Amino acid sequence: MEKNINKKQTFMAGVMTIMFAQIIIKVLGLLYRLVITNIDYFGDEGNGLYGAGFQIYMLLLSVATTGIPGAIAKLTSERIAVGKHKEAHRIFKIAFMLFACIGLVGTSLLFFGAKYIAAELIGNPAVEGVLVALSPSIFFVAISAVIRGYFNGMYNMKATSNSQMLEQLFKSILTIGIVVAIFFIFTTNPASLAEIFNISEENVTATMAAGANLASTISAAIGFVYLYGFYARRKKEIWNNIKESKAEYKPESIKKTIKTILFLSIPMSLASIVSAINRNVDTFTVINGLTIALETQGKLAADLIVAEATRLYGILSGKVDMLIGLPLSLNIAFATALVPAVAEAMALGDKKTVTRRVSFSLRTTMLIGLPCAIGLCVLAGPILELLFPNAIAAEAPMLLQISSFTIIFTVLNQTMNGALQGIGKIFVPAISLGCGALTKLILNLVLIPIPEIGIMGAAIGSVSCHVIACIINYSVLRKNIELDIKPVQSIIKPILATVLMGICAIATLKGAQLLLGSSRIATLCAIVAAIVVYALSIILLKVFKREDYHMLPYGDKIYAFMEKIHLVKP
Q1: With the CA atoms of 19, 21, 24 and 25 taken in that order, what torsion angle do they form, in degrees rounded to the nearest 10?
Q2: Residue 357: which region, alpha, beta or left (left: phi > 0; alpha: psi -120 to 50)?
Q3: CA distance 367 to 535
Q4: Burial class, 349, CB count within 10 angstroms (exposed 0-12 / middle 13-18 / buried 19+)
């Protein structure tokens, strides 16, 4: 009998495990970004430097690592489903060595290429320190990704969720600690920094940004140490399962196994690589495009133009993208859990399970994306004022309002990407997003240099990009598996619930401002009221049927409680 290491979580339990971790991660991420953004000398310019460097890092990280968890999870789940535990473990060991080498290459490229990338590609030499500070983390993330994929393939999502939460905890603490330390020393004894580290008022912002990203490298190393310990503690149980497995074992050559891993991980990585390229479209075009727009306006001195362009990019990357990323992190749980779940069901020929899980995930994705998009749109200004009282920017509310609509299409793409990879259509997510990224590149190049549009062109490009990708993904998915998507239940009712929520949010905000006088308290009241109204609307409109609650962890207890308080009929 198999040991506890391979006792499977249910599909939705796995989703909830990852979702809970992502909530913690994003809350911690939000907190440290709020703190450092509101610190003097960091602000929007610091966010611009931090974000520009981080997006380049994410591009190299995508090339080196991103397809690993999904690929290893798929290969592992397929073999464990038919009892081939030894083969699954062998794939894990070979993948670990393979991606350790790939990770070292990625680290070297970023470290030695930092100066060229900062000056020539991004257009701001101050980003070099950020890139150097981030470079070692590519190696640690690469080998960590293999361990996460191995345990995801066993439906043990704790390795991923716990390590990510630990990483984010240390990242948050270290980021705040390093940035505050630099600020404190600079403001109390600037001479010491100038003499020892060559830090002056002109480059203190760049130093803070580099320090913030150094925290990412340290936390990635800590995350790997935890994951290796997680694996070591379960190694005995893994070997017991291998010994008890009765499946015939015919080892492939190392060369053939590497080909199998790369054949799967490279296409899976393509979607993430294209996604990283898509984000870097802004990195490469926004500062350069805004420089052209600002020069055309002629309102700023030449030496201030790059700093102003970096500040505007910082609003996009440090505030807007961070807020947009919150709902995306919640939904990534479905994409992560769908790959091994759908792959296993396909391996067993269980098409009914594939239909049920994918359809339920898409409906739930809509229920996450719609309210987040509309909530950020109608409360854009108040939310930014609540979170960034010391770094308010006039351009931010409209930028957030436009960008908020990317949430709906991005979360749908996340879920559909997981389903497509699970059924073997591993190139489709990359192709669809590639078409979207090309559209975004064209729109950015055309719109951003226009002074009247400027930074808003990047938001328009992002929305267009994800709409196109969503249309392509859905078309391919519908042709390959049967979907149980009823328009009234899955689209019309959620939209109605979202409209009611939006009206309630605006009314509550205005009413609370009149009664309380405090705009920040009024914003909190509006957010709480919106959540309550949306939840009640979903229940009263019967968006979830009785059988849908069975798929949720504690779903039967939730339904029983709603019966008790007469929200639903017995």
Answers
A1: -100
A2: alpha
A3: 10
A4: exposed
536: helix, strand or coil: helix
229: exposed, middle or buried (Cβ count in 10 Å: 0-12, 13-18, 19+): exposed
Q: Give the separation between CA 311 and CA 45, rounded to whole angstroms.
A: 4
End-to-end CA distance of the chain: 40
CB-count burial class (<10 Å; 0-12, 13-18, 19+) for 546: exposed
Give the per-residue pLDDT at 265. 73
**What is the gyration radius of the CA atoms in the chain, in angstroms?**
24
pLDDT digits (tens, 9 = 90+) for 322-352: 788 777 777 776 666 666 667 667 767 777 8
Select the highest-mean-pLDDT range: 165-169, 310-314, 342-346.
165-169
pLDDT in tens, 515-555: 887 778 899 999 999 999 998 898 888 887 776 666 665 56
Q: Scanning the structure block, which residue is given the tokens 């489903």?
A: 81
Token pair 């993948």 is found at 95
User: How do residues 435-491 score in pLDDT, each as one tens digit?
Assistant: 999 999 999 999 999 988 888 999 999 999 999 999 999 999 888 888 877 888 788
For residue 339, CA distances in Å to 14, 73, 366, 436 come to 12, 7, 19, 23
What residue has token string 């803070």? 208
Residue 504 CA from chain centroid, whole number:
29
For residues 404 and 324, is the Cβ–Cβ distance under 8 A? yes
Place of tokens 């790939």: 102
Long-range residue pairs from 95-100, CB within 8 A, at least 24 positions apart, any chain: 95/68, 95/146, 95/149, 95/150, 95/261, 96/143, 96/146, 96/147, 98/258, 98/261, 98/262, 99/64, 99/65, 99/68, 99/142, 99/143, 99/145, 99/146, 100/139, 100/142, 100/143
So where are the chain's domains?
4-485, 486-570
Q: Which of 72, 135, 64 is nearest to 102 (CA)?
A: 64
Q: For residue 452, what is the DSSP state? A: T
SS3 283: helix
For residue range 103-141, list pLDDT tens digits in order.
Answer: 898 889 889 988 888 887 777 787 888 888 888 988 998
pLDDT at 404: 92
Of 39, 114, 524, 35, residue with least CA distance to 322: 35
Residue 154: name the closest of 2, 294, 293, 37 by CA.
2
- What gap in Å lies between CA 477 and CA 219, rounded to an integer? 37
Please report, for the chain, how many H helices and E strands are present, in that order.
Answer: 23, 0
| Spatial separation of the C-alpha atoms in residues 304 and 309, rounded to whole Å | 9
Rounded to an integer, what distance in angstroms lies between the CA atom of residue 108 and that of residue 132?
10
Distances (CA, A) of 428 to 339, 390, 475: 14, 44, 10
